[in-house]
## 1
Amino acid sequence: MQYRNISPFYFGPGFWLNTGQISSCLGTLRMPFYRRSLPWFFAFVLALTGSTATAEDYRVGDLQVIAPWSQQLPPNAPTVAAYFLIRNTGMSDDRLTGVSSPLATEAQLHEHIGADGMMKMQQVDGMIVPAAGQVRFAPMGNHVMLLGLGDRRQLVDGAHFPLTLHFEKAGDLNVEVQVLAEPPEGAGMHQHGG
């Protein structure tokens, strides 16, 4: 039996619903919203976490570099710092021997040390990444300092720039440093003069 005179069941020329189709549709509509949307929610979460992990985690050998970032600075800033976490999942130490970037004419490794009751920054020629341990590069601590900056369009919020980390055992690792207007939550401020 067709319901040609009942407009709610008319969906275009030649397309009418019979009573079996109507009850089938109503059964679908009565399904709770969360049950219908759950597969889409999980697909969205999986896509989101998958892309985030790919964008922020880099690996070479037993080493993992996590979430490289830099803070947007004024256009006339003479230097910029880069921060990240290096995790060593291996059973032997490795050593970060240097860094380089096409963005800068020079890239240095710096650390902060306490001297005479003051925190002092100094350049170092390398940093040990201990076996089954990690080294954090963060404001007011270890950091990469880039000098002689080139294309400053890569230093604005939302942009990114390439950085290569040179390890003694694992070799070279290319990462993309994300530029942020504000430091991530939990990161202190690092002020560096020219």
## 2
Amino acid sequence: MISIDNVDRALLRELQNNGSAKASDLGRLVGLSQSAAWRRIKRLEEAKIINGKRIVLDAVKLGFSVTVFLGVKLAAKGRVSLEDFERAVSAIPEVQLVQHVLGMYDYRLKVVATDLSDFERVLRRRIMTLPGVGEVESNVLLSEEKRNFVI
């Protein structure tokens, strides 16, 4: 684990706002030279604190107006391995997030769909037929107030 100082945190905040910013611009914003900013960014990447750069897509503008969080309880944990379930559920394109959790359910899934009929199709034909699926609870997302992890 590497030590993170306030300058590193400032660089990370700026990169979260603009992942394609140049090291010279970032350096100017946080009070470093271009080369010093570049070295710090490389150190953060090598330490896996920065794990790639991604483009954030707007699901609604792409036609996916429904987001549902599912709690999935596996029926028979002994007969179906967790890896088999994870591999099968991860292959479903509408499933955006798979989390193995403690509590009432074994997994939490984030599923996107074009509308409720589309979600029902995904649920009945794709998710409920997965190996080991027992109980499923759905929570439809009404609004999203905060989305990103910012330091």
